[in-house]
Structure formats: C-alpha cells, structure tokens
Amino acid sequence: MSWKIREKYRAILAAEEGSSARNWGGKLTVCLVYPNHYATAMGNLGFQTVYALINSFPGAVCERAFLPTDAEFAEYDRSASRLLSLESQRPLTDFDVVAFSVSFENDYLNIARILDLAGIPFFSADRSSSFPLLIAGGAALFLNPEPVADLLDVVCVGEAEPLLPPLLGLLRGEEGTGRREFLLKASRIPGIYVPCLYTYSYSGCSVTSIDNHPASAMPVSRVFHPDLGQSAVTSTLFAPDIEFADMYLIEVSRGCPRGCRFCAAGFIYHPYRPRPLELLRAEAARGLNLKRRIGLVGAAVSDHPDLGELCRWISDRGGKVSVSSLRIDALDDALLDVLHSSGHKTVALAPEGGSQRLRDLVRKGINEQQILNACDRLIDRDILNLKLYFIIGLPTETMGDLEEMVSLVGKIRERVVAAARKNRRLGSILLSVNPFVPKPFTPLQWCGMERLASLEKKYIFLRRAAGRLSNVKIQLESLREAYLQALLSRGDRRLGAFLVKAGEKGSWKRAARELSIDTDALVHRNIPLAEVLPWDIIDGGCRERLLSEYGKALSGEEG
C-alpha cells in the first residue's frame, strides 16, 4: 500500500471527531462503503447513521471505505495495491461483509469500480465463500435495485433501523454456514431481497415475467421504522473539509405528505412521519454543545408541525438554523425570523413547474400568487438571494409553459431588484433547472424522458431568456447525467454487465455500444400500464394510487 494514501488516511482519522479504532477480535466485520468520495459521504446523514448502528450492534465492528479521488486512483495504480478501509487500512477482502450505502442511481457505476479496485469478483455467481458477502441499501435501492442485482448478494429494501438487527443477528449466528443456505434464510427476513433467488424473463426492452424460489417472498415488502419518536438520527462524526462541516445535522422527519407526482419521497417513505418536538429539542441541545449551526434535514422539513417553535427554541439559545429548502405554502413566520437572524442570505424555493398547468400536472398544490407572496415574505426579511428549482421536460410540456416560467421569474426579479435598491445592496436569483427523470414508484413512472435534442433547445431558450434579465443566473443540470440517471432508474438487471464494461472502458456510452444496448429505448419509451416493471419485485403498496394519479395527471386534474 502506498505510504501517501496511508498518511492521508491517518490524517483523516486524526482530524475526525467521534471515530475510533475498534477491536476485531471474534466479531462480525463489516466494511461500509459509500460509492462516492469521502467529503460527500461524510455529509450524508444516512451513511453516518448506518455506520453508528452497526458499531452499536453486539459482536459487530464496522469500518468505512470510499470511492478514491482521481489522484488516489492513480496512486493505487502506481503502487499496484487494493482498496483499503479507512480505520484499520485492511483490504476489503478481509471483511466478512462489504455493505454499500447508495443514495443515487448514478453511483451504481462506482460500485463496479470499487469492486475492481478491491479485487472482488463483480458478479455474485462468480464469488466463492472466501469473499465477503456483498450487501447494499439506501434510497436508490428502495426504488430499483435491478441494475446492480447480479452484483449483490443481499439488498436491504427499507429503513436501516428495523432491517439491520435481524440481518446482523443472522450473520452472527450463521458463521460457517454455506452461502446458499445463508441466503435462503436471509430471504425470509422482511425487507431482505436476495436477487439470485429470482429469475427475470425478457422480450426486447420489456420484462415479461418474474419467478421466485419457493422460500423467498414475492414481492419483497419494504420495511419502515415503526416509531421515529423512539430514536434520533443526528451527526455522529465531524471533520473539516466535508459537506456541512459547520453544522450539527438532525433528521426532523421522513417522507413527505404532499405526494407530488414526479417525486419518489412522498411514496417510498409513506406515510409522512415527523419526529416529536421534545426529542428534537433534546438533540438540538446536544448539538449546540458541538456546533453553533443546526441543520434540519428531511424531504419535507417545512411541513413539520412544530418547525417554527423548534427554530425559535434553537435561536433563543444562541444557535443558528439551516434548512435545505422551504415549501412555498408552508412558510412559518417564526422560521423566517430565525433564518433572518441566523444570517441566511439565500433561501431555496421549488415552484417545479414553470406554468400553472404543469404545477397542477405534478400536483404541486401552489399557484403563482402563493409563489410571489412567499418571495415577498423572504424579501421583507432582507433575504434577497433566491434559488428557484424548476423541472423541464415534464409530460405534455410546451414552449408556452417555458415562457410562463420566464414571466414568473421576471415578476420575482422585479421584487428582488426593488428591495435591493431600497436596501442599497445587491440581490440575485439563481434558476436551478433540471430535466424530468421518471422515477419508480411515482405516478409518472410510466412516462419516458424527453429526447435530449428537444431538451437542449429548451436549455438554449432559457439561457437566452435568463441572459436578458439582470441579477438572474441559470444553473442547468447536465443532460448527459440526467440521461444516465433515467437509464439506471428504469433499467433491469441486464445492465449489470453494462456497469462492469463501463468501468473497464471508462465510458458508459462505449459500454452501451459494445454490448448493443439500446439506451434510448430504455430512457425515452412510454411503458404500457400492463407491462411488468423491473422494480415490481418490491411491494410499493400503492400501485392503485399510482395508476389513479397517473390518469389524473394526464387528464389535467390537480388532485
């Protein structure tokens, strides 16, 4: 192993607060891997939570590994060494279990890169019992695990708190058991999906059937934490130079009560579950002993019924509050006052649809006047920098819808500029524009993604429109990355070979060409409602609701 990487690992551990070396003696050893870089991983509250949960389990020890940076990859190649864990700097092949935490579909590509660097065979069928068991969980796996199904032994479908104890208990109790026998037993745990026990049949781009081993569930149920009031999810590790390094993060809720038709959070984490105020206060008090800024985390933070009171409580004790984005029709005066006193200069709002017709199509539940009123309330508190999230390429979108978006932005800009002149300081608007990507377990899952050539024309229009407006900037998501996300969101397990080939070639486009994969067909086609979906292996518990909402969306019904 290169001494440069060893020294870097030692420096990271020395700078971290909350981590410590642990004794392996006789314990189940797990290497928790985030398929992205260290700085990104350690800003992920879910990753930190799983790390803490495994280390708190009797008889288990958990270490971490991450996707190397480009410079680290070069150093690994130069020294011809394998990927090591952070804490003890051992090869991943020394562990009993390698567990991936995957938040985003595009990180599926990095799983294959990490396995290659670790010296672990890519496919489950090619690994003997001398290799670690490969497990994966995280939001991407809740949606569609099939592109990586052949690479994994076990997929955790659901939330870590109820899933990990029985799985870790089985792993501890079944040491020495043959891999096939263990997997059969694991498949009986609710929320555990063992891909090798299921067989898919195909015709062209379509899945025609899914068959399962008699001992396995069909479909696999998604498992949820029964009572979030019994435990908190907060930052446990602190280090400089990571995302959110200046904050103590607290998860205030899970899920979203809104049910926007493009968004998976309102469906895969259903029902919406806010944590009780008393628990959040206790965690905020603990956090204020470590950091002065408390970051409140959740898919629908501003829907928490006690958010304003919690923010005021933190502010009264000298703390500052940070939230990722605010729901336009759920702004609380107490929250806005605290954001102002916390020094917030920028707040993010999400109109999503550029026109009222599209906001109704996605069931956003807000109108233009509510958007403008929300902006006015922020501007009145001297918050003059606004970030506005919009989606383009929604089903049935026309250029007229984009023209309405530009008109809406112009009205918001007039308000910001007038307040900036009055206060004698600059204000600005940042448009964050993202292409629509159809997601599993949403009402729009059957819709294809708009063609890239059409989206590029819309990008050109919006760039020109934003360029004509002073104090307005535009941030456009990469169409190539959005296309890849759609491919991996909608694909089936035949993409496993594609992921491996992409790692070998350093290009997923070259991999698709060499394997003759029609990526356009997978990304752009509208899926017939009666067709078997790759993710039908998971019981979402809401198919009839999705079908109903899909019909309402295309017929123009708001709710």
Description:
With 559 residues, this protein is an alpha/beta fold. The chain has 3 domains: 3-221, 3-Layer(aba) Sandwich (Rossmann fold); 246-343, Transcription Regulator spoIIAA (2-Layer Sandwich); 345-490, Transcription Regulator spoIIAA, CATH 3.30.750. The chain is built from 21 helices and 19 strands. The strands form 6 sheets. Strands 2-1-3-4-5-6 form a 6-stranded mixed β-sheet. The chain has a 4-stranded parallel β-sheet with strand order 15-16-17-18, with helices on one face. Helix 6 links the parallel strand 4 and strand 5 (154-156). Helix 5 (108-118) packs across helix 18, helix 10 (277-288) runs parallel beside helix 11 and helix 14 (368-380) runs parallel beside helix 15 (399-423). The longest helix is centred in the C-terminal third of the chain and has 25 residues, at 399-423. The model has no long low-confidence stretch (mean pLDDT 93).
Summarize this entry quickly.
By secondary structure, the chain is an alpha/beta fold.
Write the layout of secondary structure elements.
Elements: H1 3-15, E1 28-34, H2 38-41, H3 45-56, E2 60-66, H4 70-79, E3 97-101, H5 108-118, E4 133-137, H6 139-143, E5 154-156, H7 160-173, H8 179-186, E6 192-193, E7 198-203, E8 206-212, E9 220-221, E10 247-251, E11 253-254, H9 265-268, E12 273-274, H10 277-288, E13 293-297, H11 307-316, E14 320-323, H12 333-341, E15 346-352, H13 356-361, H14 368-380, E16 385-392, H15 399-423, E17 428-435, H16 452-467, E18 472-476, H17 479-490, H18 495-505, H19 508-514, H20 519-524, E19 538-539, H21 543-555
Parallel strand pairs: 1-2, 1-3, 3-4, 4-5, 9-19, 10-13, 13-14, 15-16, 16-17, 17-18
Antiparallel strand pairs: 5-6, 7-8, 11-12
